[in-house]
Design a protein that fits this description.
The protein has ten helices and 16 strands. It is of the alpha/beta class. The chain has a seven-stranded mixed beta sheet. α2 runs parallel beside α4 and α2 runs antiparallel to α5. Bound molecules: the ligand CSC[C@H]1O[C@H](OP(=O)(O)O)[C@H](O)[C@@H]1O. The site of ligand LNRAV4D5 has 17 residues, from α2 and β9. The site of the ligand CSC[C@H]1O[C@H](OP(=O)(O)O)[C@H](O)[C@@H]1O has 17 residues, from α2 and β9. InterPro entries: IF-2B-related, IF-M1Pi, IF_2B-like_C, Initiation_fac_2B_a/b/d, M1Pi_N, NagB/RpiA_transferase-like. Pfam families: IF-2B (PF01008). Catalyzes the interconversion of methylthioribose-1-phosphate (MTR-1-P) into methylthioribulose-1-phosphate (MTRu-1-P). GO terms for molecular function: S-methyl-5-thioribose-1-phosphate isomerase activity.
Protein backbone atom coordinates (compact mmCIF):
# COMPACT_ATOMS: atom_id res chain seq x y z
CA UNK A 1 0.00 0.00 0.00
CA UNK A 2 1.40 3.38 -0.99
CA UNK A 3 1.92 5.79 1.92
CA UNK A 4 0.81 9.41 1.28
CA UNK A 5 2.68 10.88 4.28
CA UNK A 6 5.90 9.96 6.07
CA UNK A 7 7.86 11.43 8.98
CA UNK A 8 11.41 10.19 8.58
CA UNK A 9 14.95 11.50 9.23
CA UNK A 10 13.39 14.51 10.97
CA UNK A 11 11.50 15.57 7.85
CA UNK A 12 7.87 15.51 6.66
CA UNK A 13 7.47 13.87 3.25
CA UNK A 14 4.17 14.36 1.40
CA UNK A 15 3.19 12.44 -1.73
CA UNK A 16 1.97 14.95 -4.33
CA UNK A 17 -1.39 13.38 -5.25
CA UNK A 18 -1.94 15.93 -8.01
CA UNK A 19 0.69 14.05 -10.00
CA UNK A 20 -0.87 10.59 -9.53
CA UNK A 21 -1.31 8.24 -11.28
CA UNK A 22 1.39 9.40 -13.70
CA UNK A 23 4.14 10.37 -11.23
CA UNK A 24 4.86 9.25 -7.69
CA UNK A 25 6.63 12.32 -6.24
CA UNK A 26 7.32 12.97 -2.55
CA UNK A 27 8.17 16.49 -1.45
CA UNK A 28 9.60 17.67 1.89
CA UNK A 29 7.37 20.14 3.73
CA UNK A 30 9.45 22.23 6.13
CA UNK A 31 7.10 24.98 7.29
CA UNK A 32 3.53 25.39 8.45
CA UNK A 33 2.92 27.36 5.23
CA UNK A 34 4.11 24.39 3.17
CA UNK A 35 1.52 22.22 4.93
CA UNK A 36 -1.23 24.85 4.56
CA UNK A 37 -0.80 24.98 0.78
CA UNK A 38 -0.39 21.21 0.44
CA UNK A 39 -3.86 20.87 2.01
CA UNK A 40 -5.47 23.85 0.25
CA UNK A 41 -4.14 22.90 -3.21
CA UNK A 42 -5.00 19.22 -2.62
CA UNK A 43 -1.47 17.91 -3.01
CA UNK A 44 -2.70 15.82 -0.11
CA UNK A 45 -6.41 15.32 0.59
CA UNK A 46 -8.82 13.06 2.37
CA UNK A 47 -10.29 13.89 5.77
CA UNK A 48 -8.04 11.76 8.00
CA UNK A 49 -4.88 12.59 6.04
CA UNK A 50 -5.67 16.31 6.23
CA UNK A 51 -5.85 15.96 10.02
CA UNK A 52 -2.55 14.09 10.21
CA UNK A 53 -0.78 16.63 7.98
CA UNK A 54 -2.19 19.54 10.01
CA UNK A 55 -0.87 17.96 13.21
CA UNK A 56 2.64 17.88 11.71
CA UNK A 57 2.04 21.45 10.53
CA UNK A 58 1.50 22.57 14.13
CA UNK A 59 4.80 20.93 15.10
CA UNK A 60 6.57 22.69 12.22
CA UNK A 61 5.07 25.97 13.48
CA UNK A 62 6.39 25.24 16.99
CA UNK A 63 9.81 24.39 15.56
CA UNK A 64 10.31 28.02 14.47
CA UNK A 65 9.76 29.35 18.03
CA UNK A 66 12.92 30.66 19.75
CA UNK A 67 11.47 31.88 23.05
CA UNK A 68 10.10 29.92 26.03
CA UNK A 69 7.57 32.25 27.58
CA UNK A 70 4.61 29.86 27.69
CA UNK A 71 2.00 32.56 27.08
CA UNK A 72 3.87 33.68 23.95
CA UNK A 73 4.40 30.04 22.95
CA UNK A 74 0.65 29.37 23.17
CA UNK A 75 -0.15 32.60 21.30
CA UNK A 76 2.06 31.42 18.42
CA UNK A 77 0.50 27.94 18.43
CA UNK A 78 -3.01 29.40 18.45
CA UNK A 79 -2.20 31.76 15.57
CA UNK A 80 -0.81 28.91 13.48
CA UNK A 81 -3.67 26.52 14.22
CA UNK A 82 -6.13 29.27 13.19
CA UNK A 83 -4.09 29.70 9.99
CA UNK A 84 -4.17 25.97 9.20
CA UNK A 85 -7.91 25.91 9.96
CA UNK A 86 -8.42 28.21 6.93
CA UNK A 87 -7.01 25.64 4.49
CA UNK A 88 -10.27 23.69 3.84
CA UNK A 89 -13.63 23.98 5.65
CA UNK A 90 -15.50 20.67 5.41
CA UNK A 91 -13.38 17.79 6.73
CA UNK A 92 -13.80 18.01 10.50
CA UNK A 93 -10.66 15.91 11.04
CA UNK A 94 -8.64 19.07 10.33
CA UNK A 95 -10.22 20.90 13.27
CA UNK A 96 -10.15 17.79 15.48
CA UNK A 97 -6.39 17.41 14.93
CA UNK A 98 -5.70 21.13 15.45
CA UNK A 99 -7.69 21.14 18.69
CA UNK A 100 -5.84 18.05 19.91
CA UNK A 101 -2.45 19.65 19.20
CA UNK A 102 -3.53 22.90 20.92
CA UNK A 103 -4.72 20.99 23.99
CA UNK A 104 -1.40 19.13 24.08
CA UNK A 105 0.53 22.39 23.87
CA UNK A 106 -1.37 23.77 26.87
CA UNK A 107 -0.05 20.92 29.04
CA UNK A 108 3.61 21.68 28.28
CA UNK A 109 4.06 24.85 30.38
CA UNK A 110 6.78 23.48 32.66
CA UNK A 111 8.92 21.92 29.93
CA UNK A 112 11.97 23.40 28.26
CA UNK A 113 11.43 24.80 24.76
CA UNK A 114 13.11 21.78 23.16
CA UNK A 115 10.96 19.38 25.17
CA UNK A 116 7.82 21.30 24.18
CA UNK A 117 8.70 20.87 20.53
CA UNK A 118 9.57 17.20 21.03
CA UNK A 119 6.28 16.59 22.78
CA UNK A 120 4.28 18.19 19.96
CA UNK A 121 6.10 16.06 17.41
CA UNK A 122 5.30 12.97 19.48
CA UNK A 123 1.60 13.98 19.53
CA UNK A 124 1.56 14.41 15.74
CA UNK A 125 3.21 11.01 15.31
CA UNK A 126 0.62 9.49 17.70
CA UNK A 127 -2.23 10.93 15.61
CA UNK A 128 -0.57 9.47 12.53
CA UNK A 129 -0.09 6.01 14.04
CA UNK A 130 -3.51 5.88 15.73
CA UNK A 131 -5.15 6.49 12.36
CA UNK A 132 -3.65 3.27 10.98
CA UNK A 133 -5.13 1.22 13.85
CA UNK A 134 -8.49 3.00 13.49
CA UNK A 135 -8.68 2.15 9.79
CA UNK A 136 -7.83 -1.50 10.33
CA UNK A 137 -10.60 -1.75 12.95
CA UNK A 138 -13.07 -0.14 10.51
CA UNK A 139 -12.15 -2.83 7.99
CA UNK A 140 -12.58 -5.58 10.57
CA UNK A 141 -16.03 -4.25 11.51
CA UNK A 142 -17.04 -4.07 7.85
CA UNK A 143 -16.14 -7.74 7.35
CA UNK A 144 -18.89 -8.59 9.84
CA UNK A 145 -21.34 -7.04 7.36
CA UNK A 146 -19.90 -8.18 4.04
CA UNK A 147 -19.46 -11.59 2.45
CA UNK A 148 -16.75 -13.17 0.27
CA UNK A 149 -17.50 -12.71 -3.44
CA UNK A 150 -19.49 -9.46 -3.04
CA UNK A 151 -19.38 -6.62 -5.57
CA UNK A 152 -18.83 -3.25 -3.92
CA UNK A 153 -19.06 0.25 -5.37
CA UNK A 154 -17.09 3.13 -3.91
CA UNK A 155 -16.90 6.83 -4.69
CA UNK A 156 -13.99 9.27 -4.61
CA UNK A 157 -10.96 8.12 -2.64
CA UNK A 158 -11.41 7.02 0.93
CA UNK A 159 -8.39 4.81 0.55
CA UNK A 160 -4.87 4.49 1.84
CA UNK A 161 -4.22 7.74 -0.08
CA UNK A 162 -6.75 9.55 2.14
CA UNK A 163 -5.34 8.20 5.40
CA UNK A 164 -2.19 6.80 7.05
CA UNK A 165 -2.85 3.27 5.70
CA UNK A 166 -5.69 0.93 4.64
CA UNK A 167 -8.14 3.80 4.04
CA UNK A 168 -11.61 3.79 5.54
CA UNK A 169 -13.93 2.65 2.74
CA UNK A 170 -11.12 0.60 1.20
CA UNK A 171 -10.02 -1.00 4.47
CA UNK A 172 -12.44 -3.96 4.13
CA UNK A 173 -11.18 -4.43 0.57
CA UNK A 174 -7.59 -4.77 1.75
CA UNK A 175 -8.48 -6.91 4.76
CA UNK A 176 -10.69 -9.17 2.63
CA UNK A 177 -7.71 -9.76 0.33
CA UNK A 178 -5.58 -10.62 3.40
CA UNK A 179 -8.25 -13.21 4.34
CA UNK A 180 -8.26 -14.67 0.82
CA UNK A 181 -11.73 -13.33 0.05
CA UNK A 182 -12.44 -11.93 -3.42
CA UNK A 183 -14.40 -8.71 -3.64
CA UNK A 184 -15.06 -7.08 -7.00
CA UNK A 185 -14.88 -3.30 -6.70
CA UNK A 186 -16.36 -0.64 -8.97
CA UNK A 187 -14.57 2.69 -8.47
CA UNK A 188 -16.44 5.77 -9.64
CA UNK A 189 -14.06 8.18 -11.37
CA UNK A 190 -15.54 11.06 -9.31
CA UNK A 191 -15.62 14.20 -11.40
CA UNK A 192 -14.36 16.89 -11.35
CA UNK A 193 -11.08 16.06 -9.58
CA UNK A 194 -11.14 12.35 -10.48
CA UNK A 195 -9.99 11.03 -7.09
CA UNK A 196 -11.65 7.72 -7.98
CA UNK A 197 -9.86 7.31 -11.31
CA UNK A 198 -6.54 8.86 -10.32
CA UNK A 199 -6.30 7.52 -6.76
CA UNK A 200 -8.71 4.70 -5.85
CA UNK A 201 -8.28 2.79 -9.10
CA UNK A 202 -4.52 3.37 -8.82
CA UNK A 203 -4.08 2.11 -5.26
CA UNK A 204 -6.46 -0.85 -5.52
CA UNK A 205 -5.08 -1.93 -8.91
CA UNK A 206 -1.51 -1.82 -7.61
CA UNK A 207 -2.55 -3.82 -4.55
CA UNK A 208 -4.07 -6.57 -6.67
CA UNK A 209 -7.68 -5.82 -5.70
CA UNK A 210 -10.16 -6.59 -8.52
CA UNK A 211 -11.17 -3.02 -9.40
CA UNK A 212 -13.12 -1.70 -12.40
CA UNK A 213 -13.18 2.02 -13.15
CA UNK A 214 -16.49 3.56 -14.22
CA UNK A 215 -17.73 7.04 -15.01
CA UNK A 216 -20.00 8.51 -12.33
CA UNK A 217 -23.00 8.41 -14.69
CA UNK A 218 -22.71 4.61 -15.02
CA UNK A 219 -23.43 3.88 -11.34
CA UNK A 220 -27.22 3.83 -11.65
CA UNK A 221 -27.35 1.27 -14.45
CA UNK A 222 -25.11 -1.14 -12.51
CA UNK A 223 -27.49 -0.91 -9.55
CA UNK A 224 -30.51 -1.32 -11.86
CA UNK A 225 -28.95 -4.51 -13.26
CA UNK A 226 -28.53 -5.84 -9.70
CA UNK A 227 -24.76 -5.93 -10.05
CA UNK A 228 -23.89 -4.05 -6.84
CA UNK A 229 -24.15 -5.77 -3.47
CA UNK A 230 -23.13 -2.76 -1.39
CA UNK A 231 -21.89 0.80 -1.67
CA UNK A 232 -19.19 2.00 0.74
CA UNK A 233 -18.03 5.61 0.88
CA UNK A 234 -15.88 7.65 3.21
CA UNK A 235 -16.97 10.82 4.98
CA UNK A 236 -15.65 14.27 5.67
CA UNK A 237 -18.00 15.11 8.49
CA UNK A 238 -20.85 13.23 10.18
CA UNK A 239 -23.32 15.48 12.03
CA UNK A 240 -24.81 14.50 15.38
CA UNK A 241 -27.94 13.13 13.66
CA UNK A 242 -25.97 11.00 11.19
CA UNK A 243 -26.29 13.32 8.16
CA UNK A 244 -23.00 12.86 6.32
CA UNK A 245 -20.92 15.18 4.14
CA UNK A 246 -18.82 13.42 1.56
CA UNK A 247 -17.50 14.00 -1.93
CA UNK A 248 -19.95 15.54 -4.39
CA UNK A 249 -21.94 12.78 -6.08
CA UNK A 250 -22.36 10.72 -2.91
CA UNK A 251 -25.92 11.94 -2.33
CA UNK A 252 -27.17 10.79 -5.73
CA UNK A 253 -25.54 7.38 -5.17
CA UNK A 254 -27.40 7.07 -1.86
CA UNK A 255 -30.72 8.03 -3.48
CA UNK A 256 -30.26 5.43 -6.22
CA UNK A 257 -29.13 2.84 -3.66
CA UNK A 258 -32.35 3.42 -1.70
CA UNK A 259 -34.40 3.02 -4.90
CA UNK A 260 -32.68 -0.23 -5.91
CA UNK A 261 -32.39 -1.67 -2.39
CA UNK A 262 -28.57 -1.58 -2.30
CA UNK A 263 -27.09 -1.23 1.23
CA UNK A 264 -25.34 2.16 1.54
CA UNK A 265 -22.56 2.15 4.15
CA UNK A 266 -20.36 4.98 5.34
CA UNK A 267 -16.90 4.24 6.73
CA UNK A 268 -16.22 6.71 9.54
CA UNK A 269 -13.28 7.03 11.92
CA UNK A 270 -14.78 8.57 15.06
CA UNK A 271 -12.70 11.80 14.69
CA UNK A 272 -14.92 12.42 11.62
CA UNK A 273 -18.04 12.55 13.82
CA UNK A 274 -18.81 16.15 14.82
CA UNK A 275 -21.21 16.33 17.77
CA UNK A 276 -21.09 20.14 17.65
CA UNK A 277 -22.82 20.08 14.24
CA UNK A 278 -26.46 19.10 14.83
CA UNK A 279 -27.47 18.23 11.25
CA UNK A 280 -26.13 18.22 7.70
CA UNK A 281 -27.59 21.68 7.15
CA UNK A 282 -24.89 23.14 9.38
CA UNK A 283 -21.95 21.44 7.64
CA UNK A 284 -19.89 24.01 5.66
CA UNK A 285 -19.56 22.86 2.05
CA UNK A 286 -16.36 23.89 0.31
CA UNK A 287 -16.69 25.47 -3.13
CA UNK A 288 -13.59 25.11 -5.25
CA UNK A 289 -12.29 26.95 -8.33
CA UNK A 290 -13.89 26.72 -11.74
CA UNK A 291 -10.64 25.50 -13.31
CA UNK A 292 -11.22 22.08 -11.71
CA UNK A 293 -14.35 21.72 -13.86
CA UNK A 294 -13.28 23.52 -17.03
CA UNK A 295 -9.72 22.17 -17.33
CA UNK A 296 -7.85 18.97 -16.80
CA UNK A 297 -4.05 19.12 -16.79
CA UNK A 298 -4.25 22.36 -18.72
CA UNK A 299 -6.62 21.06 -21.43
CA UNK A 300 -9.80 23.09 -21.68
CA UNK A 301 -12.93 20.99 -21.31
CA UNK A 302 -15.42 23.90 -21.43
CA UNK A 303 -15.74 27.31 -23.12
CA UNK A 304 -13.64 30.21 -21.81
CA UNK A 305 -15.48 32.30 -19.21
CA UNK A 306 -18.34 29.83 -18.69
CA UNK A 307 -20.09 30.12 -15.31
CA UNK A 308 -19.24 27.17 -13.02
CA UNK A 309 -20.67 25.86 -9.74
CA UNK A 310 -18.13 23.53 -8.07
CA UNK A 311 -19.18 22.33 -4.58
CA UNK A 312 -16.62 19.75 -3.43
CA UNK A 313 -19.07 17.90 -1.16
CA UNK A 314 -22.73 17.12 -0.68
CA UNK A 315 -24.71 15.91 2.32
CA UNK A 316 -26.41 12.52 2.44
CA UNK A 317 -29.36 12.57 4.87
CA UNK A 318 -29.11 9.95 7.58
CA UNK A 319 -32.33 8.31 6.35
CA UNK A 320 -30.43 7.05 3.29
CA UNK A 321 -27.56 5.47 5.23
CA UNK A 322 -27.90 1.75 6.03
CA UNK A 323 -25.14 1.79 8.67
CA UNK A 324 -22.21 3.91 9.77
CA UNK A 325 -19.17 1.72 10.39
CA UNK A 326 -16.56 3.08 12.79
CA UNK A 327 -13.51 1.60 14.51
CA UNK A 328 -15.64 1.26 17.66
CA UNK A 329 -18.41 -0.72 15.99
CA UNK A 330 -21.37 -0.55 13.62
CA UNK A 331 -23.95 2.20 14.16
CA UNK A 332 -27.47 1.53 12.90
CA UNK A 333 -30.36 4.00 12.59
CA UNK A 334 -31.80 5.93 14.35
CA UNK A 335 -28.49 7.77 14.55
CA UNK A 336 -27.88 9.73 17.72
CA UNK A 337 -24.13 10.15 17.75
CA UNK A 338 -24.02 11.68 21.20
CA UNK A 339 -24.96 8.21 22.59
CA UNK A 340 -21.29 7.21 22.63
CA UNK A 341 -21.30 6.78 18.89
CA UNK A 342 -24.44 4.68 19.24
CA UNK A 343 -22.48 1.42 18.88
C1 LIG B 1 -11.25 8.80 4.19
S1 LIG B 1 -12.50 9.90 3.83
C2 LIG B 1 -11.82 10.86 2.54
C3 LIG B 1 -12.86 11.76 1.92
O1 LIG B 1 -12.21 12.97 1.51
C4 LIG B 1 -12.42 13.12 0.11
O2 LIG B 1 -12.52 14.46 -0.26
P1 LIG B 1 -11.22 15.24 -0.84
O3 LIG B 1 -10.56 14.33 -1.83
O4 LIG B 1 -11.81 16.50 -1.47
O5 LIG B 1 -10.36 15.55 0.37
C5 LIG B 1 -13.70 12.39 -0.14
O6 LIG B 1 -14.82 13.12 0.29
C6 LIG B 1 -13.48 11.15 0.69
O7 LIG B 1 -14.60 10.41 0.96
Amino acid sequence: MISPIEWRDGKLYILNQLKLPVEKEYNVKSTVEDVFYAIKDMELRGAPLIGIAAAYGVYLAAKEIDFNNHQEFMKHIEEKTEYLAQSRPTAVNLFWALDRMKEKAKTLENLSLDDKKKSLLEEAISIHKEDEAINRSIGENFLKLLKDGMTIMTHCNAGSLATSKYGTATSPMYLAKEKGWSFKVFANETRPYLQGARLTAYELHHSGVDVTLICDNMAGSLMAEGKIDAIITGADRVAANGDTANKIGTLQLAVMAKHYGVPFYVAVPTPTIDLSTPTGKEIPIEERGSHEVTNWFGKATAPEGIKVFNPAFDVTPHQLITAIVTEKGIIYPPYNMSRGWGC
